[in-house]
Amino acid sequence: MQQDPAEIRAAIEKNKNVLQDIELMINSLHDVRSSIHHVFHILQSRAEPESGASFREHAKFTYTALECLAKLALSSDAVLNETQALELPKLQGPSPVSIEAKQLEARMEDQDNGKSKDIAGSQPKGKTAEQISLEYTDLSIDATLRKFYKSMKSAGRLVRASRVEGQSSLPTAVIKVTISAVMNAYLVLERDDQSRCMSVSRIVVFGAGEETSIWEDSHHLVFKKISQIATGAVDHFVSKDPQSLLGATLEWLAHYTTLFSSPCVKCAKHLCFDSQQFKLLPPTFYTYNTPTVQPYHPQCLS
């Protein structure tokens, strides 16, 4: 008995969809595993005086990532018979971190539509964009670095910015920004004859401990995403006030100390599916076009 060609095409299309779903889930598992590995690397490399509260913040993110990893797991029968993965039960015996997260989520649900306001109010206010612009206007690169050091010290943030050694006669300068034990950012600056920053020709972000050329990209998707966002931030600062470009960029980058601890201001979640390219990510978009900086998932802003 000859099968209907339309049925054959439909069966082939269904199998294609199943294979695509399998590929997506495998990639997601790989990326979550990579993210968890990176967080453990951060925790293991932290200096002894920096443990404590920061350790607990990173541990919360790690546990959240493990929960997401469990939900991404597939049974072989489900893969063969269904086009979508079956959601697994939540982890048994929740840790205090999980219980605390669920209690916070329940309280936020009880507040109806006041969720975003409450979270926004819990974030540190910091300086406004106008204050930063005034403080850093028309400063040389070295003067900007000194002012930024004082700003971070007074704010109690473990963020440092310094020059990368090079030839002082060249019209470029490379700045390394060490953001706690979370990540490192490199800025390639074009400077004038008075050693003031004229433009940022490249900005790239790496995970803490990554040893990669500044002309390459990070091996971690989360930092690739932040590099893209940082390029947009630099373009914004240039158009708004080019004379305070370096200072504004450094102050903005400093907020990423909370990358693995602060939830999204809008959805109150930490991990969220970004795209097929970037998979699950924490809130990587720290606003640069608002009076104060707040963390969001990029899709939560659309």
Provide a descriptive summary of the structure in words:
The chain has 302 residues and is an alpha+beta fold. It contains nine helices and eight strands. Helix content is 47%, strand content 14%. The strands form three sheets. The chain has a four-stranded antiparallel sheet with strand order 1-2-3-4. Helix 1 packs antiparallel against helix 2 and helix 7 packs parallel to helix 9. The protein is elongated and about 80 Å long.
At a glance:
With 302 residues, the chain is an alpha+beta fold.
Structure classification: alpha+beta
Helix content: 40-55%
Please work out how many helical segments DSSP would assign. Answer: 9
What letter string, H or E per element, gives the SSE order? HHHHHHHEEEEHHEEEE
Tell me how many strands there are: 8
Distance between the termini: 52 Å
**Biggest β-sheet description:** 4 strands, antiparallel
Query: Rg from C-alpha positions?
Result: 23 Å
β-strand percent reads: 5-15%
Average pLDDT figure: 74
Please state how the strands of the largest beta sheet are arranged side by side. Answer: 1-2-3-4
Give the uncertain stretches in residue-range form.
Answer: 46-50, 71-105, 111-124
